[in-house]
Amino acid sequence: MKVTAVQTFVVQLPLKLDGPPPMVSGQPRTAIETLLVRVDTDAGITGWGEGFGHNIIPATKAALETYVAPWFIGKDPTDINALHRDAAQAFHIFGRNGPVVYAHSGIDIALWDIAGKRANLPVSQLLGGARRKEVRAYSSLMRYGTPSTVARICSERAAAGFKHIKLHEHTVDAVRAAREGAGPNVAVMNDVNCPWTVAQALEMEKAYRPAGLYWLEEPVFPPEDHKGLARVRREGQARIAAGENAAGLHDFVDMFEKGSIDVAQPSVTKIGGITEMRKIIAAAEAHSVELIPHCAYFGPGNLASIHIVASLSTDTMLENIYANL
Questions:
Q1: Residues in Cβ contact with 159 at an 8 Å cutoff, skipping those fewer than 6 apart
Q2: If you write DSSP's letter for every residue of 252-318 in order, what string do you get?
Q3: Which candidate, 87, 10, 96, 85, places its Cα nearest to that of 54?
Q4: What is the phi/psi pair of residue 70, to 5°?
Q5: pTM higher than 0.85 for the full model?
Q6: What is the pLDDT of residues 293-321, one digit of tens each?
Q7: Cα–chain-centroid distance for residue 96?
Q8: How far apart are CA 265 and CA 252, in angstroms?
Q9: 23 against 191, higher pLDDT
Q10: C-alpha to C-alpha distance for 232 and 199, rounded to whole angstroms
Q11: Chain-wide mean pLDDT for the chain?
């Protein structure tokens, strides 16, 4: 079997939020965009993948169409592990993180789709078997900023049955409002997206303590400061989660060895696809670190994440982005 064609498609859905739209790189975000990757073969089997994503889609699409996709043309899509290794080495000169790796991720996910269709099995079976028929989800909110809005939406999510709710808030007032809205029996997490120095992160971790966070996610900039993140984990009280910005297996191993995190969050559309995800899962198990995939997408990356979570030995959760689409 050979890869005969790779195509990309951008799907855009309107994003409707309470209040003003969130700002991303100085621009208002009014839509959710998904970069679909279609891989065709000479056997008539087509696989679908997804490359990260959101505002970086034009760069990922360009990297895929100009270099990454042509490299895969004529290759055997059934030799996934060897292809992944060879592709990663071929692409490394263009960066070990960013659009080229995101493009590679999309194709790798599509190759696993092809493998599942070829075997007439769900991908979770190819990953060792589905341990569960249903996957627990936590509700991952947008950043609202206004405490009253945060409280109301947390109350609505709790009423909908979610037992875990993740914020993206910075202020103490918003986090306090989330706790009040969610009630005492719902776990509340907060992803702050790398805003602070280590000293600032320690100060904010202490300020958040009355809310009893289930975890504090990515409190330190830059995200590569694994030693600094380890200090926040060691000197603070909150569990620390991170990994959506990690550059594959070796970044995660470094975090594990430095004691930086309690929860590993690899993102299948960013770190090299399902093949790289499998390596990170094995490393997390070896270091006794809980793994809960990052999943801020709606296409094949979301479906791949569902199959990954279904196959894990631990009954973990899946991130579910809350947006009115």
A1: none
A2: HHHHHHHT--SEE--BTTTTTHHHHHHHHHHHHHHTT-EE--B---SSHHHHHHHHHHHH-SS--EE
A3: 10
A4: -55, -35
A5: yes
A6: 999 988 999 999 999 999 999 999 999 99
A7: 17
A8: 9
A9: 191
A10: 8
A11: 95
Per-residue pLDDT tens digits for 204-225: 999 999 999 999 999 999 999 9
Measured torsion, CA atoms of residues 143, 321, 280, 254, in degrees rounded to the nearest 10: 0
Residue 235, phi then psi, degrees to nearest 5: -95, -20
Specify whether the CB–CB gap between 199 and 223 falls below 8 A.
no
Question: What long-range pairs does 305-310 form, CB within 8 A, spacing at least 24?
Answer: 305/268, 306/135, 307/122, 307/123, 307/124, 307/127, 307/130, 308/124, 308/127, 308/268, 308/274, 308/277, 308/281, 309/135, 310/124, 310/130, 310/131, 310/132, 310/133, 310/135
CA dihedral 59, 243, 186, 32 (to 10 degrees): 0
How would you classify the pairing of strands 317-321 and 31-41? unpaired
Beta bridge partners of 320: 139
d(CA 43, CA 33): 30
Q: What is the pLDDT of residue 30?
A: 80
Residue 159 token pair: 């009423």
Q: Angle of helix 226-235 relative to helix 249-258, nearest 10 degrees?
A: 40
